[in-house]
Amino acid sequence: MMDSGIGEAMQGWESAPSDPTPATLVIAEAEAGRSPEHAVTAAGGHVQGRVSWHEARERLERQGPVAVVLAEARGASDAALTPVLPLLDAIGRRGGARIVVTLDVEQIDVLAASLCGPGIELLCAPSEVERVAALCIAGMRSGDRVHDVSRNAEAVRLQRLNQEVARIAETLARLTRGEGDARHTDRRSGGVGEPTPGYRAPPPVSEMPEVTARDIRETIRARRLRDQYFGSGLFEDPAWDMMLDLFAAELERAQVSVSSLCIAAAVAPTTALRWIARMTEAGLFERQPDPFDRRRAFLGLSDRASLGMRNYVAAVGRSGLAIA
Fold first, then answer.
1. CA separation for the pair 28, 73 (Å, rounded)
2. What's the average model confidence in pLDDT over 271-296?
3. Is residue 178 scored above 70 in pLDDT?
4. Are the CB atoms for 29 and 53 separated by under 8 Å?
5. What is the pTM (predicted TM-score) of this model?
């Protein structure tokens, strides 16, 4: 539940003005140097102000609307971050500004537990190019007029990611309903909609084959083995890799941290965090608070995703096929 202080602070963040050069508030420690400002300028924005993390909450509570907040968490202590993160999350959820947050690998669990709103982009150990690209997209999504080809290309890429998540969600929904016919791609899920060769799974039986964590872990190991012979990057499928990992953990009655799931995704941490956000928004992943540490959270499959995975594995088993 949002505390009263955050609720009052949000009153001034209802809408950010449209501006050809997005106003950006920078939150960064002195050790970050001038690189945050340079990134904002390179992205076509202008810096409205800069504060340290210790000053950030007070500034955010009295700040007028801005298009973008660039929060450089790298190098900041947990003690400095903790009071500010819930307010940033609330701002991102309200759509008052787009939030771009940079972080180190060691900070993934702490920041991902608090920053899970749709208006937040987490960049793990980003390059300057990645930081500028994220700020370009943030400014564009805040209503700015953008004609740059690279920004449009990034927007198309994100749109395709969203469409892929929607396709996965629809496929799992069909599995939970016992529908195995995939001969036609659903037009609503982002596919081209043309008839494709498909395979109809055998009809359900009363007794489902036993699903073991060992089977799932062997599938994951086989998928990683491909990279040893063909190089990394050729077979990237982070959504499915993460779903397999969470399903195996569910069968093992184990908990999975955000940082651990990023490793299971077998892609760059920023890409994994982006997929986690989309899969959570699609209702496939659920956050589970750590009962012993409020700053951290675990991830698990939603009931719908879990049932879909079980039905998929059962259908594969009945067909005498290997889990892909």
1. 7
2. 90
3. no
4. yes
5. 0.75
